[in-house]
Amino acid sequence: MYTKYSIEEIKERLKSCLNEDRYIHSIGVMEKAMQLAKEFNCDVEKAQVAGLLHDCAKCFPNEELAKSKDIFEEDEKLSCKTWHAPVGAIIAQDEYGVIDKEILSSIRWHTIGKQNMSDFEKIIFLADKIEERTREIEFRQPIEKALYERNNLDDAMLKSFKITIESLVIRNLPICFQTIDIYNNLLEKTSK
Ligand code: DGI
Ligand code: FE
Ligand code: FE
After folding, report:
1. pLDDT tens, 34-43?
2. What is the pTM assigned to this prediction?
3. Cα–Cα nearest to 23, from 33, 9, 13
4. CA-CA to 49 of 20 to 30 Å: which in 32, 72, 93, 120?
């Protein structure tokens, strides 16, 4: 048991604080995270909780999220789209009773990523990008292809960062240094 609530109780609660699309996305991430956990030998029950809760703060207004800016990375402060991740980890702990450190860190870093992520953190990150209920096939497919070509989580992480960075550039949005750093590292690591 990774929270004091049942999965059904968590779903009910999420339904009341996410919009419908975001709720469906969260169910999609839960399902995909469980699938990836099986395929890549991670804890399936833990993946279920992390996937379901990863965006639990996504629908909070920016002013509300900004109240926690002391816990944001310096350059994260520039990019309000990233704020729901650090706040989500706090909400998962305080409101949903999650104490498992790896679940909390997978939520914390599911948007900008982090150096040296564990396999568990990677599968939550990737499930968010390739869930089948709301992510469009043209974004999903190249990441899946990269994942299954060599059965390598880092190949898929690299592809996912490429797509995110491209889309931030196209939308004229700032990019966290950390994202660029991780991208550079993955590029080196996966070329071996
Ligand atoms: O919350 P989701 O929409 O399911 O997905 P997410 O948490 O991965 O990303 C939310 C948005 O954050 C997405 O449009 C990309 C954007 N974003 C903004 N700045 C950065 C960033 N993503 C990364 N990786 N790095 C950034 O610096
Ligand atoms: Fe998110
Ligand atoms: Fe998400």
Report:
1. 999 999 999 9
2. 0.97
3. 13
4. 72
